[in-house]
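DUF6876 domain-containing protein: structure tokens wanted.
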Amino acid sequence: MEQKEQLTPTQILNSLHGFIGSEQFYRIYPNVIITEGVKFLCDQANCFWLIDCIYSYQTIKKVAVETFQVIDLTVDLANHTGLIVVTDGNEVELMRQELEFTDFPLSQIRLYYTDSTVLLPREY
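Answer:
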């Protein structure tokens, strides 16, 4: 099987700007769907673990009751640590998780979760 060349962080960011709306969706779990843009991000940044995190947060009642969630991942690229913060879209923090290690290649990313779908802000 031929392996695709991984893009640089700059190339990933530039490519993410091209995802507007979504015509194809991918079911990851019975109750979680990702868009084309999020699938591209997961493939290029090897971050399907981030979808696992978002899915696991739905077991927390104060998170699960929110129909619209904003997930911000911030990464300290030098130390390979990170922080995931979930808000209700109005800056009310619902939860946070510190990552002792991450190889996520971007310094930050924002995702939305609504109607069981994880999407890029430009795909909303």
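The mean pLDDT is 95. Residues 78 and 107 are 10 Å apart (CA to CA).

Cheers.
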